[in-house]
Design a protein that fits this description.
Layout lengths: L1 H5 L3 H14 L1 H11 L4 H24 L1 H5 L4 H16 L11 H19 L1 H11 L7 H29 L2 H19 L13 H34 L1
Length: about 240
């Protein structure tokens, strides 16, 4: 143990923590959005379990980071999945008494893990790159250590966003739009897109981000209006 800490590349540890802080803001938004409809007593559990599950999955992704980047359509499919998650998070909560609280808790945890897996492709590579400076024997352990240190920061960020969601419902719209923005970037950055030079420009990148944002907000808003109208007709 002492040998591990004496040979540990602390510069890489700091880089991993900073990367997770800088790139974890959108993850905190997803965690908060997924847990916003849970009872107050279950919110902390949802945040903690979802974050732990996401961290474990992220370690697995980092172990295969180089391979993942070389697979065409992976980012494209991830972006499409993130679009769906963004639209889903905009929908009204159907809180009937037939739904058990534990089911809702684990549904939120599952949403957090899936969304984090999709959104973490870019920072997974960044973290793996930071670990390259360390001893090869310590790289995976180093990544795990850095992610564990960052867990309290992600949980705190999610708790802060939850408070904003309670006070300002428009944050839900902004959060869903953020997911759309990220999904557009994932789609345009897929290795398969490289075969079309016209799509590898800065303008095309911004256009893809904007298109993802518009899609999530527009489709989410339309489906939300339809769901509310159906509820009103059922109630009437």
């Amino acid at each position: 143990m002492l040998e591990f800490f004496s040979t540990l590349h602390w510069g890489a540890v700091v880089q991993i923590i900073v990367i997770d802080i800088l790139l974890g803001g959108d993850n905190a938004v997803v965690i908060a959005l997924a847990c916003r409809n849970l009872p107050d007593r279950q919110r902390t559990r949802g945040i903690v379990f979802g974050t732990l599950g996401a961290i474990i999955l992220r370690v697995v992704l980092i172990a295969f980071a180089v391979l993942l980047l070389d697979i065409p359509f992976l980012k494209f499919l991830g972006g499409m999945l993130l679009l769906w998650i963004g639209v889903k998070l905009m929908q009204p909560d159907h809180d009937d008494h037939q739904i058990d609280a534990s089911d809702r808790l684990w549904a939120a945890v599952k949403t957090i893990i899936v969304a984090d897996a999709v959104m973490s492709l870019d920072n997974v590579i960044a973290i793996a790159g930071a670990a390259e400076a360390a001893d090869p024997r310590h790289r995976l352990t180093l990544v795990i250590f850095g992610l564990i240190v960052s867990i309290p920061l992600i949980v705190w960020g999610s708790t802060l966003v939850l408070k904003l969601l309670d006070r300002f419902p428009v944050v839900v719209l902004l959060g869903a739009g953020l997911l759309g923005w990220i999904s557009g970037g994932l789609i345009i950055d897929d290795p398969f897109i490289d075969r079309w030079p016209a799509l590898n420009t800065e303008i095309a990148g911004y256009a893809a981000h904007a298109a993802g944002t518009i899609f999530v907000i527009a489709v989410g808003w339309l489906l939300k209006r339809r769901a509310i109208a159906n509820d009103n007709r059922a109630a009437g």
